[in-house]
Design brief:
Blueprint (H helix, E strand, L loop, with lengths): L1 E2 L2 H21 L4 E5 L6 H14 L6 E5 L1 E3 L10 H8 L11 E2 L7 H17 L5 E4 L21 E4 L2 H7 L12 E4 L2 H5 L4 E5 L5 H9 L17 E6 L7
Parallel strand pairs: 1-10, 2-3, 2-6, 3-5, 6-9, 9-10
Antiparallel strand pairs: 4-8, 7-8
The structure holds 2-amino-2-deoxy-6-O-phosphono-alpha-D-glucopyranose (GLP).
């Protein structure tokens, strides 16, 4: 779906999420959302905050699972995804703190495996992801599933690609400060969501969007695996669509 502006795309997805939350509320069931970080979903979060303030959209029965977290950063670190989500969304809405989940980037190496397995179990116990929101990295990553990630991969510790670390360098005031590892939901975890929506804006994403949509699905571009999902939409602006 190609929109004239990123804001229109973000608005459309926010309205869709609001309708989902309200219909599940009416059935007395929680809504389980998979959320993403990066600059792309910020517009979506602004729209959700607006719907909360102006149209009484409640997040009391919403459970969230974020895609990923840098490994080795404390929650309070200025670039942790925990902090990002608090600042961009959670502190502005009425979500219960116990319903918020992010991979734990602070566990020791010896605890990573069980921590990742627990994350997967928590998603299943919540009833599975109703809707997963995604951005896309220039390497074709979704979450932090870099090239080489398999279709059936699950939550795990990964090594970040050099281009991904370079793209993050500005936020960390230098590439040397960017963590080398992260914990991410796997491609298989993402594909287990009942519905997936990927957002992308700007010419910088045009090439990777064209490849994700038009190349045969393969592990050198993990976002291409989304092609196999029965309910996947890419909501993009005209610049991100310019090479399609
Ligand atoms: C990071 C995140 C991804 C995100 C990507 C793109 O690598 N782990 O989930 O999609 O950045 O970021 P941006 O939206 O800032 O372009």
């Amino acid at each position: 779906e190609i929109y004239a502006t990123a804001d229109l795309a973000a608005r459309s997805l926010a309205d869709h999420i609001a309708a989902l939350i309200r219909s599940r509320d009416a059935e007395g069931r929680p809504t389980v959302l998979g959320l993403a970080t990066g600059s792309t979903p910020v517009r979506l979060y602004r729209q959700l905050i607006r719907l909360h303030r102006e149209e009484h959209l409640s997040f009391k029965n919403v459970i969230t699972f974020n895609l990923d977290e840098y490994y080795g950063l404390s929650r309070s670190h200025s670039e942790s995804y925990w902090r990002f989500m608090q600042e961009q969304l959670f502190t502005h809405i009425d979500i219960r703190s116990g319903n918020i989940h992010l991979p734990d980037g602070t566990v020791s190496r010896g605890e990573v495996f069980s921590s990742c397995r627990k994350y997967e179990e928590q998603i299943v116990a919540a009833g599975g992801l109703d809707l997963q929101v995604l951005g896309i990295g220039r390497t074709g990553h979704i979450g932090f599933n870099e090239p080489g990630s398999t279709r059936d991969s699950r939550t795990r510790l990964v090594t970040l690609d050099q281009l991904t670390r370079r793209d993050a360098a500005r936020d960390f005031l230098g590439e040397a400060n960017v963590p080398r590892h992260a914990i991410t939901m796997g491609v298989g975890t993402i594909l287990s969501a009942k519905e997936i929506v990927l957002l992308a804006w700007g010419t910088g994403k045009a090439e990777v969007i064209a490849r994700a949509v038009e190349d045969p699905a393969n592990d050198s571009l993990p976002a291409s695996f989304l092609q196999g999902h029965p309910r996947i939409r890419f909501l993009i602006d005209e610049s991100a669509a310019s090479l399609l």
